[in-house]
Amino acid sequence: MKPIALDAMGGDYAPQETVAGALLAAKEGIPVVLVGQTPAVKAELQQQGGDLPIVEAPEYIAMEDAATDVRKKRGASINVCMELVKKGEASAVVAMGHTGATLASALFNLGRVQGVERPTLLIEMPSEKGRVYLTDGGANVDCKPHWLVQFAVMATAYAEAQGVKNPSVGLLSIGEEEGKGNALTNETYPLLKTTPGVRFHGNVEGRDIFKGTTDIVVTDGYTGNVVLKLSEGEARTLLKWVREALTSSPLARLGGLLVRGALQGLRAKMDPAEYGAMPLLGVEGPVFIGHGSADARAVRNAIRKAKSVVEAGLVERVRASIAQLTPAES
Amino acid sequence: MKPIALDAMGGDYAPQETVAGALLAAKEGIPVVLVGQTPAVKAELQQQGGDLPIVEAPEYIAMEDAATDVRKKRGASINVCMELVKKGEASAVVAMGHTGATLASALFNLGRVQGVERPTLLIEMPSEKGRVYLTDGGANVDCKPHWLVQFAVMATAYAEAQGVKNPSVGLLSIGEEEGKGNALTNETYPLLKTTPGVRFHGNVEGRDIFKGTTDIVVTDGYTGNVVLKLSEGEARTLLKWVREALTSSPLARLGGLLVRGALQGLRAKMDPAEYGAMPLLGVEGPVFIGHGSADARAVRNAIRKAKSVVEAGLVERVRASIAQLTPAES
């Protein structure tokens, strides 16, 4: 396997946490190349006592830069990562943080899979059944019905690449019956019913996401992004309230000590870092975008995920399933 | 105060829970009139050993009926409730369950406040600051920018009636800066900046809802309904996982016994029944819609809320604040 290109300069704690995460992944035998300003990356590697290949990138996209800056800063690390994949020298891109810039750079350097109208960000969330994939996570705010159909197709390919057999797809709406929803969902519903390769369950509601009613939930990127951030925020608030309850009296504090271990598993399950990164589906190469606030473990998890997806032939799967669509659907 | 008209036939557990809830409210000195099929309601009152005035309604809207059935079943209990308010014989309507039918009945019988384009359902949710009001909760799936402006105005009037001083309003979007959002939010943002009587904070994200960044969050009814159901579903799942963690080992079970009391407060805080009911704002009378699965306590809480809102002059406040808008905004 060609190495995974990690944007060493991306995220709030780069290059410290990116380098640390890359070293953790390398220890597991995953080949990684660090892309960034060589002096800074080299210094960080020395500091941490590790050694990994570096590919020089003279510039980088800061969190406060605009997504379109990837066109001005041609030598930005995220662009160099994409070029490595394009030239076949890396097998995937992993970048923490600037979602807009990574999306723009992927489109600019790798381009779309033939037939794909809009690439989509796929979010992985915990559910009572294990996990649920949500598309679109915020790449496309105002969507057309046939874009949502393509999101469903690409998410199905991704879920299958992750080992989900015959994944079911739900359309996020505000009632179960066909016709309960907004203009977008009402136009999308009949299309999804007849899309080849998609096992369409019908509408699902907000409550079905954590219940895990379907493996995949499809919605527009505005709603998907609200769902992602609400679910993370609610988990944070609820776990904070649990913590507060467990220190609210001497008796609760004693009980809290006894249940601490049991609750840690739950905290990990709700931690976005566990899921590592969101794949960008529909571009000509595996691209993963992680949280800007990623620590070393989150970076390692993102690299792990990229590896599993590359091995499962994600881009080939997406190409094949999009090619199955009739021109009207694609 | 004129009595509150309770639709005794509405909800999954009517008339048992509606009658029980009405008796609880009456015990607190809140005047309630039960509206429904007299024999069934009377039998239930006798069964529970209580006594309350009954207004006969020969029909009722079942949960599986269509919202438009309120026009066919003119003698439905929900219609009779609205007529009592219209005639000045009741001060508010409280109905558990069929949101669409209650909305249709309110529009049909009471009509809209002058200048209001679309009435809105207001959702009350817990937050780290206490509570947050979300509008629209699902009455209007596809919205125009100036409808959202009116929702903000009406929600402000409601929050003030509930004792919130100078409530702040956030526009639900996917980034904090103006211009980060979809077509609807991008058109709504500049309008909200100049709306008289609205303290506009700017965009808020999904994570800001539970954080309580603003007192009020404005969005379209599709997104609002997804937010409502996701937040309820996630709370249910997380508390279930907490419960499971607390029985996962003998040690955790022992600790779980000690913290049970402390966690009960949290469970109550996340229980939708605590909030009782959603007000329907913008119709010519105070109307509250509760969960279809409401038990007696939820019914009582809904009646309590209706009382406090009536006493605070909600409809007059909504009228006054909508009248302040220029024709372009209303």
UniProtKB/TrEMBL annotation, chains A, B:
Pfam families: FA_synthesis. GO terms for cellular component: cytoplasm. The keyword Endoplasmic reticulum does not apply. It is an enzyme of class 2 (transferase). Its EC number is 2.3.1.274. GO terms for biological process: fatty acid biosynthetic process; phospholipid biosynthetic process. HAMAP family: PlsX. Homodimer. Probably interacts with PlsY. This is Phosphate acyltransferase. It comes from Allomeiothermus silvanus (strain ATCC 700542 / DSM 9946 / NBRC 106475 / NCIMB 13440 / VI-R2).
